[in-house]
Backbone:
């Protein structure tokens, strides 16, 4: 019994030390930081449990490998109570840690939350179609930038995801962003604290013969560069050089 207690104490001590020593590596977005942080926390918990279970399994196999008949198991209430409490603690930790991440609007954005409540917030409409993307900016005349999303660093970004035809999915793995694109519906992704750089995205829902070619790019740029990008495209759109073909996306988003 003392051995079992010692093993359990060592297990939870290792988990606590691992969580306290977790490195604070820079993440490309607040969403990726939350998701990767949760994965790391669960990994620190899962590894010691896995090692313990495998050690007990190996010990049992080696000790009883020559036994001709199985010995009856004697009841040990203290041991049963101990592992029941340990399991409850593990499940409680997993539940609390997961809920704290899933309830964050940068991971799960709900419809009762306002879109772009601050003046500096950025809204992008990502409309999927067979087989490409039309990235539009409804805050600035709804001009289109094709399959490239340009957003400023260190700002709240809201991406409205929809589809013209069949079900698609907006997925930028490095940024931790993923959302279904449904015809007639608009699903919203929110993120913030984006790091400057270029990130690859693609459709994560099989949508036809050219599904594998349905890529897009997310470019995170400094604020002044983003403002210049918006100004140039707004002027071009107002002069008639761009913006054609956006009516379908606007109608879809309004639904």
Residues:
């Amino acid at each position: 019994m003392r051995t079992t207690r010692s093993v359990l104490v060592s297990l939870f001590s290792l988990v606590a030390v691992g969580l306290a020593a977790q490195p604070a590596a820079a993440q490309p977005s607040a969403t990726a930081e939350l998701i990767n942080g949760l994965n790391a926390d669960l990994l620190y918990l899962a590894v010691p449990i896995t090692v313990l279970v495998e050690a007990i399994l190996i010990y049992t196999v080696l000790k009883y490998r020559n036994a001709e008949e199985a010995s009856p198991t004697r009841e040990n209430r203290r041991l049963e109570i101990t592992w029941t409490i340990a399991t409850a603690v593990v499940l409680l930790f997993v539940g609390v840690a997961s809920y704290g991440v899933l309830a964050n609007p940068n991971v799960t954005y709900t419809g009762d939350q306002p879109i772009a409540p601050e003046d500096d917030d950025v809204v992008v409409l990502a409309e999927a179609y067979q087989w490409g993307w039309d990235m539009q900016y409804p805050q600035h005349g709804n001009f289109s930038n094709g399959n490239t999303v340009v957003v400023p660093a260190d700002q709240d970004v809201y991406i409205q995801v929809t589809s013209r035809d069949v079900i698609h999915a907006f997925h930028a793995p490095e940024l931790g962003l993923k959302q279904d694109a449904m015809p007639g519906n608009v699903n919203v992704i929110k993120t913030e604290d984006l790091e400057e750089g270029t990130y690859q995205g693609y459709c994560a829902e099989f949508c036809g013969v050219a599904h594998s070619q349905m890529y897009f790019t997310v470019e995170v740029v400094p604020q002044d560069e983003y403002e210049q990008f918006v100004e140039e495209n707004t002027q071009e759109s107002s002069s008639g050089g761009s913006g054609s073909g956006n009516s379908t996306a606007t109608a879809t988003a309004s639904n």
